[in-house]
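Sequence, please.
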């Protein structure tokens, strides 16, 4: 996770989405994948009950790109929770087939 003090979000960069982000024509696909991850992980960890919002924002580093981001009501995502979120993202990607992702888009 990367702290973004200007927005109050903690940015979560996912290695598996790097190929999608590298190609400007595929960034809309990356945005959908990240939105699905945000929704799935939020439900998996009941983040709404922990005052955490997991969403997709436009990060800006050598140009704008979609990025998964967490924000806690207090302004700081606790380290223990950041670790849980990162672990849940990895587990979700490892456990989920492309077909389940595609069905979720309908």
């Amino acid at each position: 996770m990367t702290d973004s003090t200007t927005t109050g979000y903690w940015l979560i960069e996912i290695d598996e989405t790097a190929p999608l982000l590298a190609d400007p024509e595929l960034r809309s696909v990356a945005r959908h994948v990240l939105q699905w991850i945000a929704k799935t992980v939020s439900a998996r960890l009941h983040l709404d009950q922990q005052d955490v919002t997991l969403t997709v924002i436009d990060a800006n580093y050598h140009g704008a790109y979609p990025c998964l981001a967490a924000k806690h009501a207090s302004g700081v995502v606790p380290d223990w929770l950041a670790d849980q979120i990162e672990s849940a993202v990895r587990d979700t990607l490892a456990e989920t087939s492309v077909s389940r992702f595609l069905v979720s888009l309908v």
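Confidence is low (pLDDT under 50) at residues 1-6.
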